[in-house]
UniProtKB/TrEMBL annotation:
PROSITE patterns reported in the protein's UniProt record: B302_SPRY (PS50188)
Domain B30.2/SPRY positions: 1-158
CDD domains xref list: SPRYD7
InterPro entries hit by this protein: B30.2/SPRY, B30.2/SPRY_sf, ConA-like_dom_sf, SPRY_dom, SPRYD7
Gene3D superfamilies: 2.60.120.920
Annotated source species: Mus caroli (Ryukyu mouse)
Gene: LOC110299468
Stated name of the protein: SPRY domain-containing protein 7
Length: 166
């Protein structure tokens, strides 16, 4: 089964893609290579170097040159400050004792309505919703952050599957 990669055709102008499409650095955002077609999707990114970053879902209309994402209706992301944003509104926030750190794996579940975050395999129980349409995994980096598509360090939660490719 092919692995998820970031998509060089849908990325911001100053994004650097390394490791055969599996690592993002530089500045700006990038969509993943496949949309979330199944009802319950799961994907992971490893925080290689934490500075300014975001992970979530977005529709293709998202402006990948305007970070942070989550400022309009085209994306729903968790940012490095622990908050989930959609349409410039804080929809949820991870618990105070769960600041994502370098080396953590951020897992995302999305069921076509609600996005939830897992931090190193632990459910943060802070869901957020609001985005509509065909969504793709999205990431952005800035200020020397580096993120990598994870090789699935954690088993998807019950009922969720890794992203299927058409």
């Amino acid at each position: 089964m092919p692995a998820l990669q970031v998509d060089k055709r849908h990325m911001g102008t100053d994004v650097v893609i390394l490791k055969n499409g599996r690592r993002i650095c530089g500045t700006r955002g990038c969509l993943a290579s496949a949309p979330l077609h199944q009802n319950k999707s799961y994907f992971e990114f490893k925080l290689q170097s934490t500075r300014t970053w975001g992970i979530g879902v977005a529709i293709q209309k998202v402006n990948l040159n305007q970070v942070p994402l989550g400022r309009n209706m085209h994306s729903l992301v968790i940012r490095n400050d622990r908050a989930l944003y959609h349409n410039n509104e804080e929809k949820s926030r991870l618990p105070a004792n769960s600041l994502p750190q370098e080396g953590n794996v951020a897992g995302i579940t999305y069921d076509q309505v609600e996005l939830n975050v897992y931090l190193s395999g632990k459910n943060m129980h802070r869901p957020a919703s609001g985005i509509r349409g065909t969504v793709y995994p999205v990431v952005y980096v800035d200020n020397s952050a580096i993120l990598s598509v994870s090789e699935f360090y954690h088993t998807p939660p019950p009922g969720f599957e890794i992203i299927l490719f058409e």
